[in-house]
Design a protein that fits this description.
Layout (H helix, E strand, L loop, with lengths): L2 H13 L6 H13 L7 H7 L6 H15 L1 H14 L1 H5 L2 H7 L8 H8 L4 H21 L5 H10 L2 H4 L1 H16 L1
Helix pairs in contact: 1-4, 2-3, 2-5, 4-5, 10-12
C-alpha cells in the first residue's frame, strides 16, 4: 500500500477534532520545510502555518497538497508525524491494518504459550514419572546384573533423592539380591 493511499485512508482520523494540536502541526510543517529533501517550500510552509486559518482547514490542505506531490512527500509526512506525535502515529487506522496478522499465519508467540502453559511443576512431575519408570524398567530387567550397578548409582545420589528415599531403595535392592 502506497503512502498516498495510506494518507487518504488516515485523513479523516487526522483531521478530526483534538487529534493534532496547533503546536504539533507547526512542528510537522517546519520539519517538512527544513528537512532534506525539502518537502515544502518556504511559501508553502507559511501558508500551512497561517494562524488566521483554522487548524482543520490548514491540516486538510496540507494533506491534500502532499498527496498531489507524490508518495515520497507522504512518506516524509508520516516520518514527521512519528517523530512529533508518536502515540498518534501508532493509533493511525492504516497502522492498525498493517499490524493485523494474516489469519492463516501461525502466531508463534501464541503457539509457544499454548505449549508451555502448564508451568514448571508439571514439567518436574512428568520428568519424575519418566525417570522413575526408566529406573524401574532398568532394575526389573532380568537379563542384566542390575543390583550391583543400581546400588552404586543409588549410593552416590544422596543429594538427588534424599537420604530416607535412598535408604528405602537400598533395603529393597538388598532384599531383591537375597531372593
Amino acid at each position: 500500500q502506497s503512502y498516498c493511499h495510506r494518507l487518504q485512508y488516515d485523513m479523516y482520523f487526522l483531521t478530526s477534532t483534538s487529534r493534532l494540536n496547533e503546536q504539533v502541526v507547526d512542528k510537522i510543517v517546519l520539519q517538512l520545510n527544513r528537512v532534506y529533501p525539502q518537502i515544502l517550500t518556504n511559501e508553502e510552509a507559511e501558508k500551512f502555518r497561517n494562524p488566521k486559518a483554522s487548524l482543520h482547514t490548514r491540516l486538510s490542505d496540507l494533506l491534500k497538497h502532499l498527496q498531489k506531490k507524490g508518495d515520497r512527500h507522504c512518506q516524509e509526512f508520516y516520518r514527521a508525524l512519528q517523530i512529533n506525535a508518536e502515540q498518534l502515529y501508532n493509533d493511525l487506522p492504516s497502522r492498525k491494518i498493517l499490524k493485523t496478522p494474516d489469519p492463516t499465519e501461525i502466531d508463534t508467540d501464541k503457539e509457544q504459550y499454548m505449549l508451555n502453559d502448564r508451568g514448571p511443576v508439571f514439567f518436574l512431575a512428568c520428568f519424575s514419572v519418566a525417570a522413575g519408570l526408566a529406573l524401574f524398567w532398568y532394575c526389573c530387567n532380568s537379563e542384566t546384573q542390575v543390583i550391583g550397578r543400581a546400588r552404586r548409582i543409588l549410593g552416590f545420589s544422596p543429594i538427588i533423592i534424599g537420604r530416607h528415599v535412598r535408604n528405602i531403595c537400598m533395603l529393597y535392592l538388598e532384599d531383591m539380591s537375597r531372593n
